UniProtKB/TrEMBL annotation:
GO MF annotation: an example: lipid transporter activity
Name this protein carries in UniProt: Vitellogenin domain-containing protein
Keywords (A to Z) from UniProt: Disulfide bond, Glycoprotein
Domain Vitellogenin: 10-128
InterPro entries: Lipovitellin_superhlx_dom (IPR011030), Vitellogenin/Apolipophorin (IPR050733), Vitellogenin_N (IPR001747)
Pfam family, one: Vitellogenin_N
């Protein structure tokens, strides 16, 4: 796998090719693939919002095998209120698939009340309601 394709190289490239690279990196699920996706997620790369969100959704495929790294990538983006809500929702979904500790989930739940994004607040509260209704004992708390 070639990680030499940088975000700058494909900024104006065909979306189908870029998406193919992002999906392939997510399917590989290696630490290097996560770092590769991080380059597209980073706001300094000046990628379009849909492309950054697509990189996050690809990261959700790799996150269960690299949970700490995925959380390190996703949490700062999730907590940055200046990020677009689409990217923050994708970051939250990535955090969820890393099997986060209860203290992190409580931190998210407490802070979502004062979040300026109604879309993100709706998504997060819906996810927590779904957990509450689940029949699995591990989700009871």
């Amino acid at each position: 796998w070639q990680y030499s394709m940088r975000p700058e190289d494909v900024r104006d490239g065909p979306e189908a090719h870029v998406t193919m690279y992002l999906v392939a990196a997510g399917n590989l699920a290696t630490r290097s693939a996560c770092r590769y996706l991080q380059r597209f997620i980073d706001s300094k790369a000046n990628q379009a919002t849909p492309r950054r969100a697509a990189a996050f959704w690809s990261l959700t495929r790799a996150a269960p095998k690299n949970p700490e790294l995925a959380r390190l990538i996703a949490l700062p983006v999730y907590e940055n209120v200046s990020e677009p809500h689409v990217v923050r929702v994708a970051a939250f979904a990535t955090i969820l698939v890393t099997n986060p500790d209860l203290y992190l989930l409580r931190h998210i739940a407490k802070n979502i009340i004062s979040d300026p994004s109604d879309q993100l607040a709706s998504f997060v509260t819906s996810a927590f309601r779904a957990f509450r209704k689940a029949n699995f004992p591990c989700n009871a708390e």
